[in-house]
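User: Teach me something about this protein's shape.
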Amino acid sequence: MNKRYKFFINGDWVQGDDYYELKSPHTNEVIGEIPKANQEIVKKAIDSANKTNKTMKNLSAFERAEILNNVVKIFKEKKNQCIDILIRENAKPFKAATQEIERTIETYQFAADEAKKIAGEIVPIDAAKNGKNRLGYTKLEPLGVIAAITPFNFPFNLVAHKLGPAIATGNTVVLKPASQTPLSAIMTAEIFEKAGLPKGAINLIFGSGKDIGKWLTKDEVIKMITFTGSVEVGEKIKGESGLKKIALELGSNAAVIVEDTENINAVAKRCVEGSYGYSGQTCISVQRIYVKKALEKEFIKSFKEETSKLNIGDPNNKETDISSLITEQDAKRVESWIGKVNKENIIVGGERNKSVINPTILKNVSNEFEVSCKEVFGPVVIINTYETLNEAIDLVNDSNYGLQAGVYTQKIDKAFKCFDEIEVGGVMINDIPSYRVDQMPYGGVKKSGVGKEGIKYAVEEMVEKKLCLLNLNK
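Assistant: First, the predicted structure itself:
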């Protein structure tokens, strides 16, 4: 019989009244039964977080850092268990799963370090004409209860990007992970429990966002919503949240410009890594590649060769690069989008086997097609050509999204031009847009979202700046 899991509320593991079956994306076998939250459970989670606010606020910076350091230590001890969870509930290949857990550990270490750096500043009140003999200073206070809603694709590390800064700043959290990836969130809650986090500081609930999301977005006790997911859901959250603070990390159709390079094979290999890592199921997966016309043949030849080396198969196999998409329904959607382009535009791939989409290369696909103008979230990449750099920049900017972009060039003036003119949150010079380290500012423009992640920058989103002004005149 499959294990029945529980909610985590106020430091206790709480049974549900209704459950859903959690199935492995790769094998389709049932791997657990997950409780579905109702309004009462959501309210209990919010109330628990609210009651713990004072306890968390009163923790010293040292105490918050020690809890997060303990989390790092326990994650290191449970690394293999966490990798196994990712493979089972997420179909993430072993190599990618290992990388995610290593990044998760690093993310919590950054949070532990940042907990000791949170400080206000002296305000030069006497710079004003009537400010003489007055002293001003600020301190940074936690917001209170934060609702964190996370996606399936990086279920350990993207949870870390919510919980790490929230705990570092002394906030409390109601966490709702994606329905397909609850086991990683359960493991995370268990780790925080063992790390000495006060009861009620993290509360874990499960269920469909469309069913329980409104109880989080509309509750006045919650002071901030931090969400990673689709544009449609992000816009709905923004519309329902009133005056709450929000941080939304949404979609993208990330682009690369290949203007000039000393090693076209190395660039192609790197672009293959960015296109097909975790089967393209990342917000900054390479989806559009714009190659200067003179480099087209050599680039495509090298790109095809590198793509042919990818191993498709069981995520448990340490050599596997491509595995199942998160659901067969998603695989069918990607297949249908590919099927709308002309056959002569398909260089390789396009085939589907249940939940697996073979790595697909498309050529000269216009922006009217979904595979170009929307976020594919699958192993599909388009290679188009251009004549001038201005044309390439315009093509990259012809998008509703703006998360990150990559530019390959050996010319410093062209690098700065691209940085200035490409409409995204981050420009990676001589690298792919898929590059991310967890302490850098990360967030987009346009429909890619609002707010910034990266521990230091998320900390800034999760505090209120409070001013104290002293009149020293006698």
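Now, about its shape. The chain has 16 helices and 24 strands. The radius of gyration is 23 Å. If you'd like, I can walk through any region in more detail.
User: That's plenty for now, thanks!
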